[in-house]
Amino acid sequence: MLRMGDEEVILLDFWCSMFGMRVRVALAEKGVAYEYKEQDLRKEYKSQQLLEMNPVHKRIPVLIHNGKPICESSNIVQYIDEVWNDKAPLLPSDPYQKAHARFWVDYIDKKIYENGRKLWAEDGEEKDAGKKELIESLKVLEGELGDKCFFGGDTFGYVDIALVTFYSWFYTYETFGNFSFEKECPTLMAWVKRCLKKESVSQTLPDSEKILEFAVFMKKTYFTKSS
Amino acid sequence: MLRMGDEEVILLDFWCSMFGMRVRVALAEKGVAYEYKEQDLRKEYKSQQLLEMNPVHKRIPVLIHNGKPICESSNIVQYIDEVWNDKAPLLPSDPYQKAHARFWVDYIDKKIYENGRKLWAEDGEEKDAGKKELIESLKVLEGELGDKCFFGGDTFGYVDIALVTFYSWFYTYETFGNFSFEKECPTLMAWVKRCLKKESVSQTLPDSEKILEFAVFMKKTYFTKSS
């Protein structure tokens, strides 16, 4: 059990979850040591600890801080920012800027995951609609980024964390969707490169090839409709 | 234009939106005067102001504070709590309790509206699934409430605001779904009665009969599939 002083911090997670990665990046930014516990997410193999710590959604990531669970990634990142507030502020302190950041994280939560999932897990019309809406949404995000260095301005923060973890799936999206992010969203890709210069990001994001392998396996095993 | 000192506060809203009502209840709790601007939500009639202030989602509620827009109801309520922080605190100050409150508002956002909509706007299997999941979700919320007076404990707050505005639609849900909330969720209904003792709630929630009329009209006009 890793402890920092009196603290006990445990993360229930799954290696290629972009939501789990958000928590890992935030903890790395804050320099918080923690015990990582990889979870089996198959219904019948979920750990007793996961079921007890997140009885409502029964899903990762769950941060367990001194025995108390915090669930849902954007909520966890806000919690991390509030508790370990001595370094690397992630959310702005100004209420308007904070609301602005929350708005964009909510936008990412509503638009990116589900459209990305459709792109690799579905076929036909649904796949096409997912691809179209994913690219459109990322262009909206490019508009919001504009010529800023990071979404929050000069420093890497809450919105950057929420979005950059999806980059690890970009290769999978491109492969299944037969398109290029570099061509579609060059401004966003330049931002990705800036984010990757941060150790918290580069050391957290898994290898894109491994994620593609995982997606291919998942599609074959769970998503392909028998004809 | 209503002003409080140097403040200009405008709310773009629609009378029977449970999301808009959340903002109205929060502003009433804080005693903030504002200009209410009812919006026409039909695509071709949306106001220039709504399109300019919420270009991403183009929907209400939008709070415009000194010319700057804040969008998405749970985000707006948090903003209100942070800006007008001299009275009626809505979110707890402790980071863990705050994360706990945010978790439940997120749960309400994910479970209640869409299942309620299916119940009155859809038919057949989809309607039945909506009814079942709506009642199940409210029972989960009853479990979280337990024997507390309000979701946050002794005082009315963020989670209470997020959920109580749905009460104005309960009569519509019961009528379309042919069931009784009093029978299904007695603990929650006792909580509703406590909330209604607050003027901020009782003076904000519209008449249930009018909402039923609106739902019947909407279903006939927009949702009934031609056979």
Low-confidence stretches of chain A: none
Helix content of chain A: 55-70%
Give a count of the beta strands of chain A, DSSP E runs of length 2 or more: 5
Q: N- to C-terminal separation of chain A?
A: 49 Å
CATH classification, class level of the largest domain in chain A: Mainly Alpha
Protein name (chains A, B): glutathione transferase
EC number (chains A, B): 2.5.1.18
Enzyme class (chains A, B): transferase
Catalytic activity (chains A, B): RX + glutathione = an S-substituted glutathione + a halide anion + H(+)
Description:
The structure is a homodimer of 227-residue chains. The first copy, chain A, has 227 residues and is an alpha+beta fold. Chain A is globular. Chain A is built from eleven helices and five strands. In chain A, α1 (18-30) links the parallel β2 (7-13) and β3 (35-38). The first copy, chain A, folds into two domains: 3-83, Glutaredoxin (3-Layer(aba) Sandwich), CATH 3.40.30.10; 95-223, Glutathione S-transferase Yfyf (Class Pi), Chain A, domain 2 (Up-down Bundle), CATH 1.20.1050. Chain A is 58% helix and 9% strand. In chain A, strands 1, 2, 3, 4 and 5 form a five-stranded mixed beta sheet that branches. Chains A and B meet through β5, α3 and α4 of A and β5, α3 and α4 of B. Chains A, B: Residues 94-214 form the GST C-terminal domain. Chains A, B: Keywords: Transferase. Chains A, B: This is glutathione transferase. Chains A, B: Belongs to the GST superfamily. Chains A, B: It catalyses: RX + glutathione = an S-substituted glutathione + a halide anion + H(+).
